[in-house]
């Protein structure tokens, strides 16, 4: 079988961009070369891997089945190249971290700072995006390790829970549901719900909560946790959010929690890696450090720094 890396990269680029033109732009090659690579790959396998839908190109059923293996081959070769460079030159050691938005804002910075203090010879980089982007980067090995919610079953990703992620239902302090004290589950459906964009783990969590409690409120979609907090502060709706992302506004009284007998989701942050393939030494060190007490302490101390009364919390002092 004479499949080439050019053919695999062209195939994956077409799937990623949805067109031969987009793939050619992404790979910085000509459109005929991408088309030729796709045709050669299909001939080699004896099946059509793509199909046209209007002006777009999408994977055929055979293409969808083949894509994870193509990504594995490319990803493993790139991992092997990095491992070889690390073995021959200690300055080449690196760890590419990916994280969902909340973790990227609140967990990754102190975690990377603490790891860098212990391993100054290992370069760190981070890519922050929504849940689907993070999972795809791990599957394709564009990132070495990730911090996100629970990984999908049979998705080529394995994960271990390493930090608790408490969830709260937030609203403006003046919101009717806050002022009413504890409210029934049915009353939660009387207010608009503020949700993240499609592909976000936070949105999926909220949708599962609403479905489980048979709630059908008005939905407002916003593109970031910051936008959701500002919209909630304006009294325009309520939202399920990580306590980590909202603790400062809650402690300052800019937001409040809605009290309800409904069971809120129980979540953890997971450390994610591909299920297959060897692990480079630099990545192994990061994977061992992240669940350690030292790492958890660094994350907790970073949270306290931004909390009101943090100086008292760190020194054990109190009001005079």
Describe the structure concisely for a colleague:
The chain contains 14 helices and twelve strands.
Task: Report what the structure shows.
- This protein has 320 residues and is α/β, with parallel strands linked by helices.
- 48% of the residues lie in helices and 18% in strands.
- It folds into 3 domains: 5-67, Winged helix-like DNA-binding domain superfamily/Winged helix DNA-binding domain (Arc Repressor Mutant, subunit A), CATH 1.10.10; 93-164 and 268-308, Periplasmic binding protein-like II (D-Maltodextrin-Binding Protein, domain 2); 167-257, 3-Layer(aba) Sandwich (D-Maltodextrin-Binding Protein, domain 2), CATH 3.40.190.
- The chain has a 5-stranded mixed β-sheet with strand order 4-3-5-12-6, with helices on both faces. A 3-stranded antiparallel β-sheet has the order 10-7-11. Strands 1-2 form a two-stranded antiparallel ribbon.
- Helix 1 packs across helix 4 (61-88).
- The longest helix is centred in the N-terminal third of the chain and has 28 residues, at 61-88.
- Residues 306-320 have low confidence and may be disordered.
């Amino acid at each position: 079988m004479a499949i080439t890396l050019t053919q695999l990269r062209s195939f994956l680029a077409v799937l990623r961009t949805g067109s031969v033109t987009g793939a050619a732009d992404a790979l910085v090659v000509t459109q005929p070369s991408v088309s030729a690579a796709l045709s050669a790959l299909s001939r080699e396998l004896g099946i059509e891997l793509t199909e046209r839908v209007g002006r777009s190109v999408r994977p055929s059923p055979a293409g969808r089945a083949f894509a994870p293996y193509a990504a594995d081959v490319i990803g493993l070769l790139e991992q092997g190249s990095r491992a070889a460079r690390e073995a021959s030159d200690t300055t080449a050691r690196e760890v590419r971290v990916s994280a969902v938005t909340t973790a990227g804002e609140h967990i990754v910075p102190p975690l990377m700072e603490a790891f860098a203090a212990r391993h100054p010879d290992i370069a760190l980089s981070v890519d922050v995006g929504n849940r689907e982007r993070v999972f795809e980067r791990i599957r394709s090995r564009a990132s070495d390790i990730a911090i996100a919610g629970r990984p999908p079953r049979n998705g080529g990703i394995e994960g271990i829970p390493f930090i608790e992620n408490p969830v709260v239902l937030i609203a403006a302090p003046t919101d009717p549901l806050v002022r009413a004290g504890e409210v029934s589950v049915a009353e939660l459906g009387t207010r608009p719900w503020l949700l993240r964009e499609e592909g976000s783990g936070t949105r999926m969590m909220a949708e599962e909560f609403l479905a489980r409690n048979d709630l059908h409120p008005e939905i407002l979609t916003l593109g970031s946790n910051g936008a959701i907090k500002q919209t909630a502060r304006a009294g325009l709706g309520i939202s399920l959010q990580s306590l980590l992302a909202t603790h400062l506004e809650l402690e300052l009284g800019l937001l409040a929690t809605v009290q309800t007998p409904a069971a809120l989701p129980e979540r953890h942050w997971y450390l994610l890696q591909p299920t297959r393939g060897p692990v480079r030494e630099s990545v192994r060190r990061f994977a061992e450090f992240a669940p350690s007490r030292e790492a958890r302490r660094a994350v907790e101390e970073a949270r306290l720094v931004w909390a009101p009364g943090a100086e008292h919390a760190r020194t054990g002092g109190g009001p005079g």
